[in-house]
Amino acid sequence: MRIVGEWFRRLAFLLRRRAVEDELRREMESHRAMMDEPRAFGNTLRLRDEARDAWGWRWLDELAQDIRFAWRTLRRSPGFTLTAILTLAFGIGVNIGMFRLVNGLLLRPLYERPEEVIAVSSRSTKPDGDFRGVSYPNYVDLREGTTSVFADLSAASDLFVGLDVGEGPRRTRAWAVTANYFDVFGVPLALGRAFSPDEERPGANIRVAIISHRLWQQRKAGATIIGQTVRVNGEPFTITGVAAEGFSGTSTPGPELWLPLGAHDTLNSEPASATRGLSARDVHELTVVGRVRAGVPVESAAPAVATVARRLEQSFPDVNAGYTFEASEPMRLLFMPGARGGAFTLLALTLMIMPVTVLLVACLNLADLLLARGHVRRQELAIRSSLGGGRWRITRQLLTESLLLAFAGGAAGLVLSSWAIEALMTSLGPLLPAAVNLPAIDLDWRVLAGTVGFCVAASLVFGAWPAWTLTGRAVVADLKRHVGDQGRQPGGIRIGNALVIGQVALSVLLLVTGGLFLMSAITAVTADPGFSLDGGVVAQIDPGLAGYDQARGRQVQTALVDRLRTTPGVEAASIGSGFPFTSGDSRLVAPVGGADAESRSVDSVFTVTGRDFARVLGLSLLTGRDFTDAETLPGSERVAIIDDALAQRLWPGTNALGQLIQFLDEETPDARPPLRVIGIIPALKHSINNPRPFPHVYVPLGQQYSSAMLLHVRGRGKEAERALLGTVARVIRETDPRVPILGLETWRDHLDNTIDVLLLRVAAQIFSTFGIIALLLAVIGVYGVKSYVVSRRTREFGIRIAAGAHPRLLLWHVLREGSRTTAIGIGIGLVLALGAGQVLQGMLYGIKSVEPLVLAGAPLILFTASLLASFLPALRATRVDPTIALRSE
Amino acid sequence: MPRDTGLPPGTLMMVVLRVLMRQPLHGYAIAQTIRQRSRDELSVEEGSLYPALQKLLLKGWVKASWRESESGRQVREYRITASGRRQLDDEMAEYRRMSSAIDVLLKEA
What we know:
- The structure holds two protein chains of two kinds.
- By secondary structure, chain A is an alpha+beta fold.
- In chain A, β7 and β8 form a beta hairpin.
- The longest helix of chain A is centred in the middle third of the chain and has 38 residues, at about 390-430.
- Chain A starts with a helix and ends with a helix.
- Chain B has one domain: Arc Repressor Mutant, subunit A, CATH 1.10.10.
- Chain B contains four helices and three strands; from the N terminus they run αβααββα.
- In chain B, strands 1-3-2 form a three-stranded antiparallel sheet.
- In chain B, α1 (about 10-20) packs across α3 and α1 (about 10-20) packs across α4 (about 80-110).
- Chain B starts with 8 loop residues before the first helix and ends with a helix.
């Protein structure tokens, strides 16, 4: 209580400072007037100062003083200030940018009190048991059996749907959710209402939808959005609500649309749930997330759900035997399943390494500049020190200057980072598989705290050492002597060279890593997939999104391929569930018969195709025959085409034609009817990360229906590609205008846009950008130090010239000195880069981490750049006028 | 000529509180009183007195108010507060305890 009162009075003093000051003055005057000997009263100004110190605000006064002084000093040298702020803006800006991304994707909680929210998953009790989804009846039993633990337990299913908000259908992610879904997260809807239990009931098919905040803003409809309709898979859905801004459920990126669980069955084109529906106990489609009741320990969730699991095992052994429920933290990154807790921190740290390295380069740079400037300012510092400024006091003043610079740089960096993120998001937007609801990357306290942290850390790194060094010199000597040392190499220069070496080394490191990723990206894009890409065009269609059932979908797919085959300019056309060389479906393929059949299974890429699939890729059958049109209809004979990679693995040395295969993925042997191999085609590579041919198996359209398919069309040569794009679009529209075209591009573009190539490209882009920024900073640093060195040695150069040294010799002398520093830096940088290459090896494609081109190229660029940077100062050295130089000191 | 006391700041604050116990006084009067009551043994310089008074204000042990003196001059008068009295009691008790302990020690040694 006492302390509180004291602080209260202390603050009151601060607020009415002028009045108190005035009171003190009057009081002292009256005191003085009463004295017999008024002159004995001391210096009133000093006395007032001392009296005021009792209130403990002296540090604030000094800080204000320091800031005012720093402001004046910096304003007097605008060139230095601008350079410093720009350097810092880059250095801090990239850090804030990356940190904002990391914060949005990984750190910032997606909802209130995240520790209470728990995911429940169904898992086999076998060792290393597989996870499966949860069926709706199991979920209901789980919900009802755990009401004492969970305040709300919700279920949801992730879907891809065709969404049409009036601009034609496009593929997007939607979550079908239970009525209590939004309650779990404690984030109220921005508008409208959540779903009702009636709408949740499987099979209810009440067509209502909640849209994302972003979608709502794009439509610019205000509150009238409620009651409007959007088309989902061709059917009108009434909008009943708008999710809160940035809401994305448990994971990021979030969906654009939430639908009631009751509408799930009609929206999902997967055959299993389409025929049986969510109400079946063995359709395990849902993910379950709940919030633990307030006051109930989070740990009690695991035993509670396990108890329900045991009860379910007994009541429904045919479905639930051998499965239990597990409680865990919900998954956050959709594109990185399994990343939780510690792995997140690691990922966040890894992502921050690069920008922090750039900031380090920027700091070294500034330390250079400050040291150089400090030596020029030594007279000023000496005077201040001789007037009674303690070392600590002067150091503090210099640090204030650094801090001011850092905050100015940080503010500029904050603006810079906003642009950078905008640019990054815009460039990432079209690359994402569907329009997704990215997390809000805006400012929050973490970003602001991070910015302040970066600024303070930076100013300490670049400011503390120079400040301490500069204030520690023998001041008297500095006062007497004019600026400029004679005989010895000045300490500032030696330190400056060390800083340049550090900068160059770090720049080499960043440039080399950037180069490695750049080369990976180039190699990946130019990689040979095993077939010719020339003249190929691919269109992505999904009749299911127009609301077509299987029968009509098949009809449309067949009609489209037939029309394309007869279109002029088309050499071959086919249809397939996947694109070669990109990740896709896979199956465990094993021969039928023989005791060891199962152990000989081979993991193969699985593609559903029509006739002519090999032909459209420009491959010829090695042996056997292609599928017939009859085999692309349901109920036809079960046949398959495999490639020679699979044939050799399954039947080495013997003819695979006519053999029987089965897919081991189906759990029961009844569900694995054998397929007869009728043809063998050349193997294709499967992924850019694996240059070896990968086993493939192809089954005809008749055996499995998939609504989302790719139409492959090949025209005559590369030149025809562009024209063919228009032709294919026209043919699809003419055949059935309701079928949405979800993508239409050349094969080459399609491959360039696959996620693997994309990641490489993003990495190459980011690393190169960081490398270039570091290079720039290093060049500025080299230039700064060289200029400083030359200016400090003006006198020496003057003497040399007076003694008859040839200007060219002098130029050579300065350049050679600069080269030595750079060379040492490059040497250290190369060692670092080799180490980094080892670490990054797994992320590179098609090249070794020791890549001569990169290892030679990056240093060459740096060396040339730093040579150029020292050229100007060197030139200045040759132009020193000996008479002026000698007189100047 | 009285010597400058060089009293430690804490002790000076106690002395000032003690002087204010009898009646409210302004700064000059405080200095005078200390001097007279110590029979010219102790004097307090303005350089020590005013910081001490500010400290007492900060601690809330005294309150200050402006008043017109008998000579018609505006003076700032300090008045001890309840918590100032408590503080003085505590410190006096502590001081007596310490000084008697030291007394005993000095006599025995």
